Amino acid sequence: MERLIRSLIFFVIVTILSIGSSCPSSLASPTTAKTGIKAHNKTRADPGDKYFPSINNGQWNQGKRDCRNQDYLGLAEIKDADELDLIKRVLEDNGDIASTYWVGAKYVPSLKKFRWTETSELVGDWLDGEWEEGYPGGFMNAQTALQLKYTRDGEWKFRTGVTSHNARYLCEGNESSRNRS
């Protein structure tokens, strides 16, 4: 009898979970159904509304394309330490820790530097103190891009990644992409 009750409880739990996962995305989570980019539901303008973390993994080019397909500017470009601090707060406020995110900079071998792809500006020297241990290092080429990773030490740090590898991605929005629902 006890075994039958356990089986019945298990069945009910599985049924409830499967119903929850088949709900429309507007009811199940604050994400868009197409690419899984989080939409902030803020009631007031907030500088953090400018950044939209994905919940899906993708290659660097796919992330850039998905951001644009959702009317964002592209992958996030982080111009200074203050902007990085804001992005860290946005990711932590959304519970997006223990993830790695593509951002919008690729390595330019002829310059031996990273460049933001939307504005063509070089990544500033402020980044030097923001690298994950062991990065940058090793072989880098035109297929190397920047990632922002939550480390085991509980810090957000930059690292390099091959653009064909999968990671989440961080989109940057503009005024028209604020307060999406």
Detailed description of the structure:
The protein has 181 residues and is an alpha+beta fold. The chain folds into 2 domains: 1-26; 31-177, Mannose-Binding Protein A, subunit A (Mannose-Binding Protein A, Chain A, Roll). Helices cover 26% and strands 20% of the residues. It contains 4 helices and 7 strands. The protein has helices at 2-21, 25-28, 60-69, 81-93; strands at 51-53, 74-75, 100-108, 113-116, 144-150, 156-162, 168-172. Strands 1, 2, 3, 4, 5, 6 and 7 form a 7-stranded mixed β-sheet that branches. The longest helix has 20 residues, at 2-21. Residues 14-35, 39-45 and 177-181 have low confidence and may be disordered.
Write the layout of secondary structure elements.
Layout lengths: L1 H20 L3 H4 L22 E3 L6 H10 L4 E2 L5 H13 L6 E9 L4 E4 L27 E7 L5 E7 L5 E5 L9
Parallel strand pairs: 3-7
Antiparallel strand pairs: 1-7, 2-7, 3-4, 3-5, 5-6
What key attributes describe this structure?
2 domains; Mannose-Binding Protein A, Chain A; 181 residues; alpha+beta; 20% strand; globular; 4 helices; 7 strands
Helix content: 25-40%
Q: Give average pLDDT, whole number.
A: 77
Measured between the Cα atoms of the first and last residue, the distance is 48 Å
Helix/strand-derived category reads: alpha+beta
Determine the strand fraction and express it as a percent band: 15-25%
- Number of spatially distinct domains: 2
Q: What is the helix/strand order?
A: HHEHEHEEEEE
The geometry reads as globular
Rg (C-alpha, Å):
19 Å
CATH class of the largest domain: Alpha Beta
CATH topology of the largest domain: Mannose-Binding Protein A, Chain A
CATH architectural name of the largest domain = Roll
Low-confidence residue ranges: 14-35, 39-45, 177-181
CATH superfamily of the largest domain: Mannose-Binding Protein A, subunit A
